Amino acid sequence: MSADPRQAAGDARALDHYVLQVHDVDAAGASFERLGFQVRPRMTHIEFGTCNRVVQFRNTYLELLGGLAAAPSDIVREYLPRFECGEGLSHISLRSYDLEADRRAAAESGLSPGPITSARREVVMPDDSVEETDSSFFYMWRRQRLYLSLFLSGHNKPHTIWIPEYQEHPNTAVDTTGVTFVSDDPLEDRDYFSQIYRCAPTAAGPDMVRLTGHRGDVAEVWSRTRIHERYPGLELDLSDRQPGYPIGLTVSVRALDRCRAALADHGVACTVHEGAVLVPPQRAHGAVIEFVSA
Length: 294
What we know:
By secondary structure, the chain is an alpha+beta fold. It has 6 helices and 18 strands. An 8-stranded mixed beta sheet has the order 2-3-4-1-5-10-9-6. It has an 8-stranded mixed beta sheet with strand order 12-13-14-11-15-18-17-16, covered by helices on one side. A two-stranded antiparallel ribbon has the order 7-8. A hairpin with a 4-residue loop joins strand 3 (51-56) and strand 4.
């Protein structure tokens, strides 16, 4: 179960989960297993027909999302254009503890929120029993900047989302602590991100905007011209088919030496920069994975 304390009304929000959309969820799951993660078996969203495989962390989770062809037309319309840039991170969720109130506030703020929608799915528990999750979300799409949009998720049965037995990873991963976006204009994204995060940026310039969430988790939006400074030594292969999109996750680990050993065991080459271990996007279905000490 998540150890995340409930944020008070008005506090800065925190990261909840990440959507990484792929063509083949089983192939993607195998790739992330080679990175040293425990990846849960394929599950199906009851309402949508899409499928996923999930990597659980202490307070967050990574969702490898596939089967989009089976989704309702509005989901297909919003998500499929991401593939113009290749596989990769497409949508980032922040945590909500009251979706109804948060949706009203979003509407009053002019963010044009979508309806609250169920994301329920069946999950096999450690004792082999099957439970159904009770999670919901609402989108706040920016039509001209789709993948520089955020959404909010709430979980009425967190014990079905955060399961300690499923958070034990060979690479010693503990939690995600940050997400990085690339953008054609970070200042164009500043106010939208600040409004949804409910906090002012801790840094804001033409090449990088940074926000810090409730748990100290960090979201950074970098310009195309400077993003290589964030991930030196990596071939990023940026696409200009969209104004921007999420490009990387930061994962804290208990032991960097064991993490590097887990990568080496599967022949995964990595780059070390300022104490962080960087896995290139070519090994993680379009996402940079940055490992740091917890």
